[in-house]
Automatic annotation (TrEMBL):
Motif (DEAH box): 290-293
Gene name for this UniProt entry: rapA
SMART domains xref list: DEXDc, HELICc
Enzyme class: hydrolase
SUPFAM superfamilies in the record: P-loop containing nucleoside triphosphate hydrolases
Species whose genome carries this gene: Kineobactrum salinum
Upper classification of the organism: Bacteria, Pseudomonadati, Pseudomonadota, Gammaproteobacteria, Cellvibrionales
Keywords of this entry: Activator, ATP-binding, DNA-binding, Helicase, Hydrolase, Nucleotide-binding, Transcription, Transcription regulation
Protein name: RNA polymerase-associated protein RapA
C-alpha cells in the first residue's frame, strides 16, 4: 500500500486513538500522529493495523474549525482526498482530508465494516434483538404502564391508561379510601415520563407523607424524586424565605431548576413566601397535589395554600389533585378544587350546583339503555338508533365531571374485607367530672391534664394494656386524636406494661416517623402496636395489621373513615376488627351511637359523611352536651337520611362517575397487553445476552430471579443501575410484590431502558463478518445482511412512534443483488454463521470492498422503496386516530364545556407536526454483516 504524508488513517487495533495523520514515511516504517490523544505511533509498513479513511457522498464530516459538512463528492489530488459538501447554511465548501477533525468516531456500520472494525456475531444478534424489542414496545397499547411494581387492578389500570395518555392531563383522582390513589398518580406520572409527554414533575404532599411518597415512587415506579425542604433550599438559594415580594429579583440559579423530579411539603411554601416565588419561577410539566381537600377555600376567602396551588395550576400544563373525600369541606370547596383544574369550565358555583342535581337523571338514563329501553328524552345531538353502548358512552362523555374527575367507590370494587365492630363499655371515673364542661373535654377527657396522671385512673388505659396482651402477637394500630395522648399511651405501654410499641405523632421528624412505621411493620422483631395521633389516619397504609383500636372518636365522619381506611384497603386479607373503648354515659357513648346506628360507619364506608354531619350538626352537638329523649329521634332521622343519601349517590353522581372511572373491558385489554409483555423467558434471554455482551456476571438465583454483579472485565466502566454490590432481580410480578428486596425487571425498568439505549447509541454489534457453509452455493459467494430502522427526528411529546415505530427492515443481498431475507430468517442465519479470525477478516474486506459498496447501494435502494408506503400508511393512521379524537372532542365541547380548548388546539398542532416529521423520516442503517460462503 502507498503511504503519503498528510493522509488520514485509522487504527483498527485501537479505535480510541481517533483519526491519525501520516507525518513520516520510511522504506519499512510509517509514523502517524493522533492529535485526539496527543500520541505518535510507528508501525511496520507491511503489517500496520491501519485502514485508510475514505468518506463518500452522503456521509457527514467535521473539520478542525467545527464546520459540519454533508459530503456531495470526493476527488483525489496528489494522493490526498478533497471533500466537497454543503454546510448548514447550504453553502458549498471544499476541504482537504488534512482539515478533518481528529476526534472523528468510526461508528457507522459501513465505516466500521470497511475500515476493519468487526464485532462478535452475538453482539450483532443483540443489536438486532434490541431493535425488534423496542419496535414491539413502541407498538404496545400498554406502553408506559408495564414497569410499576403493583397489582394490576382494573380500576387503577384504567385510570392510569385513560389519564396518562392525555396531553397535559388535569384531573381530580377521588377514589374512596383504600382504592390506591397514590398508585394511580404514580402510574400516570411514570407513563407521562416514559412517553415523553412530561419531563419535569413537582409533587406537593402533607409534611407527614413526604417520605412515604418518596419511598413509594422509588419502590413501585423506579422514580427518583429529589426531596426539597427548608434545609436544602437555604443551602442552595440566596433568597430570603420570608420575603413575599413577587417582584423580587430571583437568583439565576434557581434550585428548583436543578432537578427534574421534585417532592415537597406544601407546608414549606405556606411558611416561606420566598420559596413560593422560586417554585413559581420554575417550569413544571405536571404538578401533583395530594390530600387536596386540605386546601383552604370558601366563597368568601381562599387560603394562601389555595392561592399558591392556583398560581402553579395556571402556569403548569398538567395538574393532578388527589383526595378521597372530594366534598369533605362541602360542595363549594369541591367546586373550588375543580376550578383549579379548569377555571373556564367551572366558573359558576350556582351552575355547578345545578349540574350536581342532574346527575341522577343521566345515571337513570344510562341504566335504562343498559336494560334495553330507549328513553324518549335523550339529549339533543344523540342518535336514537345508535347502539346502547355508544349512547351510554356519549352520555358519560357529555354530562357530568367524568373527564376531569375519577371516582371509584368501594361498593363497585371487589377485594375489600368485612368490618367487624367491637364495643367496649367502661365505667366513667369520678375524676372526669370536668368532662361536661365542653364538648372537646367530653370527648377527650384527658386533655385538661397537663401531666400523665390521668393514666392511673382512666379505665381505657388498663383495658388497652389487657387487650393488647390478649391479642398478642397480632399487630394492632391504635389511633387517638391528640399527640399528647398518643405519646403518653406509648410511654405507658412501653415502660410500664412491657409491650413493644412505637409512637407516631406530629412532634417527630419525618425520619423518626418512618422509623416508627418500619418498626411496627417488622414481622419478627418489630413493635406489636403503633400508637398514632390523628396524622396516622391519612396516607399511611398498615394493611398488614387487621386490629384497629380507636382510643377516642373524632368529631368528623370523614376522619373516622380515614382512620378505618388505614387497615380497610385492597390487599387486606382478613376482616378488619374495630375496637372502640368508651366511657359509659358520656359524650363518647353518644357519638359512638350516632356513628354506629345513625351512619352505620363502622360496618360500611360512607362518602357523604361531612354532608350528613353538616345536616345534623346542631342537633348532634346538643345531644353531646346533654343527652335527652330526643336522641332516639336524631338516630332515626340520621339513619333515614343516610340511607337516602347513599341511594342517591349510588344511583346518581357516584354511579355516573363509576361508569366513567373504570371501563372493565378497556382495563382487561390493557392488562392482557401488559401480561403478554411480561413473558419472562423472552426478557430473561435478552438480559442474559445483554450481560454477556457487556461483561456483567449473570447468576441464577431462583425461579424467575437472577443475581447481576459488575466485573473487572465489563465492556464499559459502568452498567446502568448496577452498583458495586450487584442486584437481585425478578421477572415475576407476583414475586416482586412479595419480595421487596428484589428489583422488578420489566422492559420499562430503568436498567433495561438505559441498556437498550446504550446498545443502539454505540457501535456495539453494528458491523460483523463471518463465513457460512451452504450446499449448492459456490465458495467465495458474498452475502450482505443489512438492517435498517426508520429514523424520525421529532420531539418525544408528539408521540410520533405511536404511528411510525422503528420498523426494522432486514435485507439479505446475494451476489446478484437479490434479497433472500424472506428465505433465510435472521435466527436461522445466526445458527450457521461462523467467526473468522481478525487477520483473515481484514484480508477478505480489502478484497471485496468494492463489491460490498455496490451491494450496499442495491440494499439501500430496496430499503428506500419499502420506506415510501410505510410513511404514507403511518400518516394516514395518524390522521385517522388523531382526527377522530379531534372530531369527537369538538362535538363534545358543544355540549360539555369540560373539554378544554387547549386539548383541541394541541391535537390540531400535533396532527400537523406529526405529518411534517413523518414525511421527513428516513432510513438509518443500524447494522451490516458480511458473510462469505466456504
Amino acid at each position: 500500500m502507498d503511504y503519503i504524508v498528510g493522509q488520514r488513517w485509522v487504527s483498527h487495533a485501537d479505535a480510541q486513538l481517533g483519526l491519525g495523520i501520516i507525518v513520516e514515511v520510511e522504506p519499512r516504517r510509517v509514523t502517524l500522529s493522533f492529535p485526539a490523544v496527543g500520541e505518535e505511533r510507528t508501525y511496520a509498513a507491511d503489517s500496520a493495523p491501519l485502514t485508510r479513511l475514505r468518506f463518500k457522498a452522503g456521509d457527514h464530516i467535521s473539520t478542525v474549525n467545527n464546520v459540519e459538512l454533508e459530503v456531495t463528492s470526493v476527488k483525489e489530488k496528489e494522493g490526498l482526498l478533497l471533500y466537497t459538501g454543503t454546510d448548514h447554511h447550504e453553502q458549498t465548501v471544499t476541504v482537504s482530508e488534512l482539515e478533518l477533525d481528529a476526534f472523528v468516531q468510526i461508528t457507522t456500520p459501513q465505516q466500521r465494516l470497511l475500515n476493519g472494525h468487526f464485532d462478535k456475531h452475538s453482539d450483532f444478534a443483540l443489536r438486532v434483538s434490541t431493535l425488534m424489542q423496542l419496535d414491539r414496545l413502541q407498538r404496545s397499547s400498554a406502553r408506559g404502564l408495564m414497569g410499576s411494581r403493583t397489582n394490576l387492578l382494573p380500576h387503577q389500570v384504567y385510570i392510569a391508561n385513560e389519564v396518562g395518555q392525555r396531553h397535559a392531563p388535569r384531573v381530580l383522582l377521588a377514589d374512596e379510601v383504600g382504592l390506591g390513589k397514590t398508585i394511580e398518580a404514580g402510574m400516570i406520572v411514570q407513563q407521562q415520563l416514559l412517553t415523553g409527554r412530561a419531563n419535569r414533575v413537582l409533587i406537593l404532599v402533607p409534611q407527614t407523607l413526604l417520605h412515604q411518597w418518596l419511598v413509594e415512587m422509588l419502590r413501585r415506579f423506579n422514580l427518583h424524586f429529589s426531596l426539597f425542604d427548608d434545609e436544602r433550599l437555604r443551602e442552595t438559594s440566596s433568597v430570603d424565605p420570608l420575603d413575599d415580594d413577587p417582584l423580587l429579583q430571583l437568583p439565576e440559579d434557581n434550585p428548583f431548576d436543578a432537578e427534574q423530579l421534585v417532592l415537597c411539603s406544601l407546608d414549606l411554601f405556606q411558611a416561606n413566601p420566598g420559596y413560593r416565588n422560586l417554585a413559581l419561577a420554575s417550569h413544571w410539566d405536571l404538578v401533583v397535589v395530594d390530600e387536596a381537600h386540605h386546601l383552604h377555600w370558601s366563597p368568601e376567602q381562599a387560603g394562601e395554600d389555595y392561592h399558591f396551588v392556583a398560581e402553579l395550576a395556571a402556569q403548569s400544563p398538567g395538574l393532578l389533585l388527589l383526595t378521597a373525600t372530594p366534598e369533605q369541606v362541602g360542595l363549594a370547596s369541591h367546586f373550588a378544587r375543580l376550578q383549579l383544574l379548569d377555571p373556564e369550565r367551572f366558573h359558576s358555583l350556582t351552575e355547578f350546583e345545578r349540574e350536581e342535581r342532574e346527575y341522577r337523571r343521566w345515571s337513570e338514563m344510562a341504566a335504562q339503555l343498559e336494560a334495553g329501553d330507549r328513553p324518549e328524552d335523550l339529549p339533543a345531538g344523540l342518535d336514537p338508533a345508535a347502539p346502547a353502548a355508544t349512547l351510554i358512552d356519549q352520555i358519560l362523555d357529555r354530562h357530568g365531571t367524568g373527564r376531569v374527575m375519577f371516582r371509584n367507590t368501594r361498593a363497585a370494587i371487589s377485594g375489600f374485607p368485612n368490618r367487624v365492630m367491637h364495643r367496649h363499655p367502661l365505667p366513667n371515673p369520678d375524676s372526669y367530672a370536668h368532662a361536661s364542661l365542653d364538648i372537646a373535654a367530653a370527648l377527650h377527657p384527658e386533655l385538661p391534664y397537663h401531666d400523665d396522671s390521668w393514666l392511673a385512673f382512666d379505665p381505657r388505659v388498663a383495658w388497652l394494656e389487657q387487650t393488647l396482651k390478649q391479642l398478642r402477637p397480632a399487630k394492632v394500630l391504635v389511633i387517638c386524636a391528640r399527640a399528647s395522648t398518643a405519646l403518653a399511651l406509648e410511654h405507658y405501654l412501653h415502660l410500664r406494661a412491657g409491650i413493644r410499641s412505637a409512637a407516631f405523632y406530629e412532634g417527630l421528624s419525618i425520619i423518626e416517623r418512618d422509623r416508627a412505621a418500619a418498626y411496627f411493620a417488622d414481622e419478627n422483631n418489630g413493635a406489636q402496636t403503633l400508637v398514632c395521633s390523628e396524622i396516622g389516619s391519612e396516607g399511611r397504609n398498615f394493611q398488614f395489621a387487621h386490629h384497629l383500636i380507636l382510643f377516642d372518636l373524632p368529631l368528623n365522619p370523614d376522619l373516622l373513615e380515614q382512620r378505618i381506611g388505614r387497615l380497610d384497603r385492597i390487599g387486606q386479607e382478613q376482616d378488619v376488627e374495630i375496637h372502640v373503648p368508651y366511657l359509659e354515659g358520656s359524650a363518647q357513648e353518644t357519638l359512638l351511637e350516632w356513628y354506629d346506628r345513625g351512619l352505620n360507619l363502622f360496618r360500611e364506608s360512607c362518602s357523604a359523611g361531612t354532608m350528613i354531619f353538616d345536616t345534623f350538626q346542631t342537633r348532634l352537638l346538643a345531644q353531646l352536651e346533654h343527652r335527652n329523649d330526643d336522641f332516639q329521634t336524631l338516630l332515626d332521622d340520621t339513619a333515614e337520611f343516610t340511607a337516602r343519601t347513599r341511594l342517591e349517590l349510588r344511583e346518581g353522581r357516584d354511579r355516573l362517575l363509576e361508569r366513567n372511572s373504570c371501563k372493565p373491558e378497556v382495563a382487561a385489554a390493557v392488562i392482557a397487553d401488559i401480561r403478554a409483555n411480561e413473558d419472562s423467558d423472552t426478557l430473561a434471554a435478552y438480559l442474559e445476552s445483554l450481560c454477556e455482551a457487556y461483561g456483567v456476571e449473570h447468576e441464577f438465583h431462583s425461579d424467575q430471579a437472577v443475581v447481576l454483579r459488575p466485573t473487572e472485565h465489563m465492556l464499559t466502566g459502568h452498567f446502568p443501575y448496577l452498583d458495586d454490590e450487584g442486584l437481585t432481580a425478578t421477572f415475576s410480578r407476583d414475586k416482586a410484590l412479595a419480595r421487596e428486596d428484589m428489583a422488578f425487571l420489566t422492559w420499562e425498568h430503568p436498567m433495561l431502558v438505559a441498556a437498550m439505549d446504550m446498545v443502539l447509541s454505540t457501535e456495539l454489534g453494528n458491523a460483523s463478518l463471518g463465513t457460512i457453509k451452504l450446499r449448492g452455493i459456490a465458495p467465495g459467494t458474498m452475502l450482505l445482511e443489512c438492517l435498517y430502522s426508520i429514523n424520525c427526528v421529532a420531539p418525544r411529546s408528539l408521540q410520533v412512534e405511536r404511528f411510525l415505530p422503528l420498523t426494522p427492515l432486514r435485507l439479505l443481498v446475494d451476489a446478484r443483488g437479490k434479497d433472500l431475507a424472506g428465505l433465510v430468517p435472521h435466527e436461522r442465519l445466526n445458527g450457521l454463521v461462523e467467526r473468522v479470525n481478525k487477520n483473515t477478516a481484514l484480508a477478505i474486506i480489502k478484497q471485496v470492498q468494492a463489491d460490498v459498496e455496490s451491494k450496499m447501494t442495491l440494499a439501500g435502494k430496496q430499503a428506500q422503496e419499502r420506506l415510501a408506503p410505510i410513511l404514507v400508511e403511518a400518516e394516514q393512521e395518524m390522521r385517522a386516530a388523531l382526527g377522530a379524537e379531534h372530531d369527537r372532542l369538538t362535538a363534545l365541547r358543544r355540549v360539555n364545556p369540560s373539554i378544554r380548548q387547549q386539548e383541541l388546539d394541541h391535537l390540531s398542532y400535533r396532527m400537523e407536526e406529526c405529518a411534517i416529521h413523518i414525511r421527513h423520516a428516513g432510513l438509518q442503517l443500524q447494522a451490516l454483516r458480511l458473510i462469505i460462503t466456504t
